[in-house]
Amino acid sequence: MLCLTAGQAGILIWNSVSFQALCGIVYIYDKARLLRFWFGLKPIVLFFKPETVEVVLSSNALLEKTFVYEFLAPWFKQGLITSSGLKWKKRRRLLTPAFHFRILDNFLPVIDSHARYLADKLRGEVGSASFDLVPYITLCSLDILCETAMGKYVGAQKRDTPYVKALNAASHLFGTRFMKPWLWPEFIFSMTSEGRTFKECTNAMDAFTRSVIRERKTYIMSELKSGVGMEEAFSTDNFGAKRKKAFLDLLLSEHLSDPKFTEEDITEEVNTFMFAGHDTTAVGMSWALYLIGQNPMVQKKCQEELEEVFGDDYSRSLTLDDVKNLKYIECVLKESQRLYPSLPYIGRESSSDITVNGYTIPSGTNCMIFTYMLHRDSEVFPDPEKFDPDRFLPENSAGRHPFAYVPFSAGPRNCIGQRFAMMEQKVVLAHVLQNYEIKSLVPRDQLQLTAEMVLRSYNGILIQITPRRHSSS
């Protein structure tokens, strides 16, 4: 195993330059299969080959998240991302049914509505020489998450709201702290302006979430006291109008059935869902549209698939069958996540000694899956820099190492919301591509990638759009 001492590697700050430098080091030491380096004062073992990644992600000795996730504890407390041991297992078992296809069907009208609004809003950029796509996609994703998670319409795409500002600021500050090792100790971070702002933002979001929970619980309890059944009570909003169940409703239902699952537990999981879902999904959609805008033939095939699914009726709402039938667009999204995974690395900490490729990884070691480079393994993905959605056709995926491609992690602690994320991304791409031809303006070799907690383009994603039809989606 290659060991980079502090003198050799220095303190790696994960900005654009050092991220690319680390990629280069991995290429050089490809045959070593493992890499150890220092990040601040933390020794990290980097994994970027399928057989070593499998050991890490499937091992029961590596169920704990790495130290970075401790930065989220003041916000999430013991939510699904930050909890461990028996509490994590119980919470995971409880939440998994919330992401079953039958439940996701309830979320589809909300996703469809906000994606449709995004397509309309983009008309304001028709004729622009260029614009950054990312803010538009991010606000759309926030609208979707607020309504599916909390049943609360916030109108992020229409106006600035305190909750949206706080969520964006907290997400940015989390990434900033990650890249500055001197801010890792909580007692130092809490005394800085960044730490104070982070606390203000998380307190504001926590208060908003709690108020939504109390408001919803009060309404449900009043309905139950009036003799309305549980299912009927949850099928209406706080003013009695019909609506689909939100993630919060599923948690409240559990709370009312089992008081051991408290309002505090609900708050933890709603906050976790909001943070984990908005940035990763928004960045994933943005990268997919960027790559589509770089590849006219892929764009044409996506639009042909949409025409097959919708015919001439672009005004109708998407159904779950429509989403399932967008098979090529799903391949596009998967290939996009291969090249530009929303999470360029996944962290774990070993709770006991493990052996990988003949090397002993001691208990307490911080292990990082370098997803970005794992997905560029030429042994698995020939011509790895080529954007080729056909890689993910069933006949081309057969026999591929199951841990060669892990955009949503894998093993026991994989992403619980990956079906939700894929559905959201398909619907948003469908509405954008139904309405516009996209042209990406920055060649791939000129991108400046920066990896905070998600993989971004330093200068955003600049595109041009041309209308495909005059009517709204």
TrEMBL record:
Which residues make up the binding site for heme?
415
Q: Which InterPro entries match?
A: Cyt_P450 (IPR001128), Cyt_P450_CS (IPR017972), Cyt_P450_E_grp-I (IPR002401), Cyt_P450_sf (IPR036396), Cytochrome_P450_Monoox (IPR050196)
So which cofactors does this thing need? Answer: heme
* Major location (coarse): endoplasmic reticulum
What protein is this chain from?
Cytochrome P450 4V2
Localization, per the record, is: Endoplasmic reticulum membrane
The record's section on Pfam families has: p450
* Superkingdom of the source species: Eukaryota
Recite the lineage of the species.
Answer: Eukaryota, Metazoa, Ecdysozoa, Arthropoda, Chelicerata
Q: Which UniProt keywords apply?
A: Endoplasmic reticulum, Heme, Iron, Membrane, Metal-binding, Monooxygenase, Oxidoreductase
